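Re: the multi-chain job from yesterday

Posting the exact lines I submitted so nobody has to dig through the queue logs.
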Amino acid sequence: MTTLLRRPQNVAKSSRQLLEAYNLSQTLARRPASLPRPLYASARSRHYATQPDSEQDGKKVDKTGGAPPKGMEHLYSQDGAMSGGPPQPPGRKPDDGGPLPGRTKLTQQEEKALNDVFKLVKKGMPATMADDIDKALVRVKKEGMPDELRETIKECTDEGMSPARAAKLWRLTTQMARHTVESEMNEKQKQAESEQPKQQTTADPGPGKTEEGKGGKKKKKESEFPDVTMIKFDLSNFLLSGFVAYLLYRLVMPTENSREITWQEFRNTFLDKGLVEKMVVINSNRVRVYLHRDSVASMYPDSPASQQGFYYYFSIGSVEAFERRVEDAQNALAIPSSERIPIMYHEEGSWANTLFAFGPTLLFIGAIFYISRRAASGAGGGQGGIFGMGKSRAKKFNHETDIKVKFSDVAGMDEAKLEIMEFVSFLKEPGMYQKLGAKIPRGAILSGPPGTGKTLLAKATAGESGVPFFSVSGSEFVEMFVGVGPSRVRDLFANARKNTPCIIFIDEIDAIGKARAKQSFGGGNDERESTLNQILTEMDGFNTQEQVVVLAGTNRADVLDQALMRPGRFDRHIAIDKPTMDGRKQIFDVHLKKVVTNEDLENLKGRLASLTPGFSGADIANCVNEAALVAARENVSSIKLIHFEKAIERIIGGLEKRSLVLSPEEKKTVSYHEAGHAICGWYFQYADPLLKVSIIPRGSGALGYAQYLPAGGGDLVLMNMKQMMDRMAMTLGGRVSEELHFETVTSGASDDFNKVTRMATAMVTKWGMSEKIGYLYYPDSGESSEAQFSKPFSEETGRKIDGEVRRIVDEAYHQCRDLLQEKHKEVVIVAEELLKKEVLSRDDMVRLLGPRPFPDAGDFSKYFGGGTGEVPTGGGPMGGAAKPTAPGPNGPDPGESGGGGATLPPGLGGSGPEPAPTIMQGFDDSTYRGFEEAFKQARR
Ligand SMILES: Nc1ncnc2c1ncn2[C@@H]1O[C@H](COP(=O)(O)OP(=O)(O)OP(=O)(O)O)[C@@H](O)[C@H]1O
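And the result, structure tokens for all chains:
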């Protein structure tokens, strides 16, 4: 059975074969009936004809000449009493005396049909059984076919396959196989017995041994045929045969409870003979014909129409036409109106239609059911139900395998490390704290700008303390289903408690830990709030002995809910800022160890650190990696300084867009614009000296690009008014230079104006640098929600602010214009050189203009020479300021190389003909925000 089931293609194939065999034998065996058929039934339920029945029928008999009506042959039986018994099959082989009594020799057709039947029966049988079937077939061919089998095959051919016939075929063939095997065994037994007396005469074993000997022989004989498979009709065989018989029947005779006919057939065969009981018009396009079953059975005993539930149908074009035809037909048959055939009308939907109609609804209901099951299981408890929605998504890292990060890998945040060390010692030696009665801190919030190493620090804490580390992001608690967030929190803390001591790290906790709204509009935040509440509850729920430390990282500590920050929950608040110069050096140190470079590390990291103010730890890691990629592209064996500088340039300014070709006029404008900035930076004492200027388009839409060293040379924490005015004047330098050197100006300075306006506004509204406004702080719209809807000052104050901002910008403008008018020649020199070379470095500036009239301060002079190559000792940004010594009208010849230039330390690109580009972050948004932050903190 299983074999059969495993091979459906075999069943299909075998049934096809049987069908073919059946069809073939059907055509061969079908022959005209020897006698004219009776065309009338002995009893009728209706009489339509005007003539007597016998007459009418008699006529019909004559007309048809005994042949069934065209297309209705299936209604007539081929044999039976009326057909004159089974005819002598044509083509029978001459009797060779072979067949046994009760059997007849096979004709060629019968032999073929039998072959097919046997082949089919063999399918799905074990090989040994199939062999027996083969033997049976050979025997049948030799000894003739049992009459019962012949009749069954004939019935199948003539009348079609039925389950009973299929089962009978199966039974007969397997029975024959069994007989064959039995007779084979008998023959062998007889043969063995006939040999036995001979042996007994030659060696008589004696009276005592005879029985034993016989018995022994018997056993031996039995064991001579160990492999003979007896086909027994046990339960499994019975089921198998039933199954095969059913399959045969279904495949050969697909279920048929209706059959289509034509109007003519309907009329000739049923209507005219009065066999129609009623007609049902279905969906106005099909007519179902219900016949008088008894009359049909007596008239056509073998017709399927005599079976219960069977009906004929035919299609109609329109109901009206159909009704007209029926009417005409009945009129022609002269059926009285009281006896006319009833016609009913019925609308029925097909399965396909029903499916189309209800399918989408069912699908929708199914989807809703599925989703609600998921949600319910998610909300349903800590274990998360069958779909695991409520399970925590936290990744567990094992300190032995995954967490290899140590505090030594985290550079440049010594204070933060000190703070967090305490958690490590608590996890390592809790006893020490408990002895003194100290309560263990529950957790710490690490806050700071992106990429400053918060996750790294948390990992290092886990790595140092050697405990499991659960890392999860705040957003992973947020799902569209209600109740999933709190459920995940519960699961996370339950897991952590099972693994104590351990650390839970929730990154981006602001995703769920935002301050809860006083009133929520529409309840949209309920889910987030209940997740937060669950965290609060869980953190409260730790007993003080439980060694679970919760660390959380965020970029927005200011938006967190106060309840999170209270002692007993996140006790510690560790702010991690962007690294200082020293911090950057240390971070470069950590990352430079991972790459191959032959540069002097001490110098390299100092120089790179001073080139990267405002870089976060992640930026530094990226910069080192980028340098390695640049070096790999050039196919060199170690990374050189130039690669690092290219990498920094790329990170700050974006990719060079050499494909963007500017027209000569545009190029000239950009050159003069950038030269204006550069001259301002060079000659204003508190402005940022230029490091590199280029007119190669870069990044997103910038046509020119200049980099400056922050004034003071180091990390700027505070900025005074003079610095601000110089910086604003320098920012306007581009536009002023355009005004002075061209007839018209361009749109290229809009970003400069934006910076200047913002800075002047901050000076007036935040930094108390305007006498008219005084020492007031007006938040802008991004800072407070109230300021988003209404200005925090009156209209009059607004007007005053506008006036003050304008005044400051005007002052900066005049300061810039005065300088650039004075340095008109220098601007031309720098602009023309820039136009020629496209890129100018600090050394080019020194060559063209002479050394900057003010000494460079801080680390810049240490790593870049700063004109003297000496490290300044003491003095602030203004320390040791020399008088500006502007070159005279006959300044250095633009073509002269190295004239008066600062010499860079050897090995740092200063000795080559084209000095390595030295790049600095200019005054950009981040610097601006840095100032704001510094001012804010100073105010606090
Ligand atoms: N102080 C540091 N020392 C060494 N490497 C650092 C430092 N800070 C950051 N990095 C590098 O930056 C990568 C990213 O840092 P990390 O993921 O810890 O930043 P983060 O502050 O968590 O950022 P975010 O706030 O975006 O999640 C680290 O894998 C590491 O390579």
